[in-house]
Amino acid sequence: MPSSPAIETRGLRVVRGGAEVLHELDLDVPVGEITGLLGPSGCGKSTLMRAIVGVQIVQGGSVTVLGEAAGSAGLRARVGYVTQAPSVYLDLSVEENLRYFATIVRAAPARVEEVMRAVDIRQLAGRPVGALSGGQVARVSLATALLNEPPLLVLDEPTVGLDPVLRRDLWRTFRALADGGTTLLVSSHVMDEADRCDRILLMRDGSILATGTPADLRADTGADDLDGAFLALVERAEAGG
Amino acid sequence: MRPDATLATAGRVLRQLRRDPRTVALLLVVPCLLEILLKYVLDGQPGTFDRIGGPLLGLFPFITMFLVTSITMLRERTTGTLERLMAMPIAKMDLLLGYGLAFGVMAALQAALTTTVAFGLLDLSATGSEADVVVFAIANALLGMSLGLFVSAFANTEFQAVQFLPAMVFPQLLLCGLLVPRDQMADVLDAASSVLPLTYAYEGLQRVTTGPGFDSTAWRDLAIVLAVTVLALALGATTLRRRTG
Fold it and tell me: Cβ–Cβ contacts within 10 Å for residue A99, how many?
């Protein structure tokens, strides 16, 4: 491994609502790449992301992020986190939201303008967030996470419900960020987004099923697409007990 | 602790309130209308309006701020903005003090308006000055706010949050001495009232309106109200969890 990973979990165990949802998870996310966290709805992707940003109570194991224990105070300015919930103030305008969060994360005031342009919401600046569509709200939330240019972005299903043009544009934004040195961990339950990632973590029922580049996974399973690869891996895992 | 984060939070909360002019109108107008109603309900009982009209002025902000704060903080929890803030470099106290500042400003406005109406329009007479009443009104608003912040942690829905008003506020109103002087209550109720913060809020208000004025007892009462506010804020801070299950 060329450098220490951006994210490293060892034996990570999380119990939610009385059931274990992450089972002894070991994984590494390399620096400066887009890592796709893929798997069906309910497989534990969001819980894993919550553990990584340090808002999840964990029952065991370790999570190290950018060299520090997940959730430590020093990381709060270095990790951008976007949840599936809107997580912005619906009664304020787009710009008012961004100005408030910019002060909290100590971003330069000029960043507000820059992040609005980066996710193409400049024309919505004065609109109350509550009057926007779901996809537009998701981009406001993403813009908030970009304000202080964190070296690690953890994005939980950022493209869900977006039209294909917007999805393509967002993935271009992610690529530009990765080219600039940002590490991205992006979850999705849509397998066809996997090809836009440098590396994939395939997840099922709270365990990592496979990791590798999209090409590796296809070659390894002999499948044409990642849906097929996922199925092949599930069958292999079940056959192997 | 960061003053810039506190001020930004206060500004943000006030901006949210401004986006909701109906709530602001209700906050400002309803206490005035209630005071007017009280004046005419008590028309046939000379002296009664002077006795309870003044203290009520200072208790309105407690009730309204309790309600507004518990709902606002509940929304902050349910929409995910609280989780986002807790993952950012902001201290819990910055957030809570920002709320305190914003609602303190609203309370000052509310109290200034209601006292102007009561003293100017309704001929309320008091031994102390209008400013004394406003001081207690602001302190009570902060008390209501801090208790509202604290209880919002125990509500999952806005229905539950609203029900905390009768549960937490009405018993204090009944026991504080407003309806029946405390020394005429059963001993056990008198004892219970002595550990409730609104008792001291009322006692202080009563001293500056119909009593001897802003004397040492009133100062002590004000200090108790502020101390309980700080205590509730500290308890409220413990309910803001950076990590949840």
Answer: 20
